[in-house]
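Researcher: Going back to the complex we discussed earlier. I've cleaned up the inputs and rechecked each line, so this should be the final set. Can you rerun the prediction on the complete assembly and write out the structure?
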Amino acid sequence: MSDCIFCKIIAGEIPSRKVFEDDDVFAFHDINPFARVHFMIIPKLHIASLADAGPEHQALLGKILLLAPKLAYEQGLDSGFKTLVNTGRGGGQEVFHIHVHVFGGGPAA
Ligand code: AMP
Ligand code: ZN
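Model: Rerun complete. Updated structure for the full complex:
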């Protein structure tokens, strides 16, 4: 999607603080963190929201969820973390490329 900021981050056209990348997923720190550690995990495939995902995305979404504790631990959240997926305007979603927020460690500095 040419006008999607998260697709541009994946492509390296917009800089980000990368946490993790493989063939399927990308993770990077949120530019406006609401916790001391706050990053997002996204699929490289452009899916607008959870409401736009289908059975063909089951493995990809499962992979993202299973990555959350691994990356959270690596980022120092060894006693636990929160996850959040905003869906749709009414759900507070601002960027329409599906993303799982992972955050914790107390309030942002
Ligand atoms: P949401 O409200 O769930 O759609 O969250 C979108 C998140 O993307 C917000 O927490 C923003 O701070 C974050 N965000 C927007 N632009 C960027 C960017 N260029 N780099 C990192 N995070 C961003
Ligand atoms: Zn996108």
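Model: Worth noting: Residues 5, 14, 16, 30-32, 86, 92-95 surround adenosine monophosphate (ligand 1) (CB under 6 Å).
Researcher: Good, that matches what I expected from the previous run.
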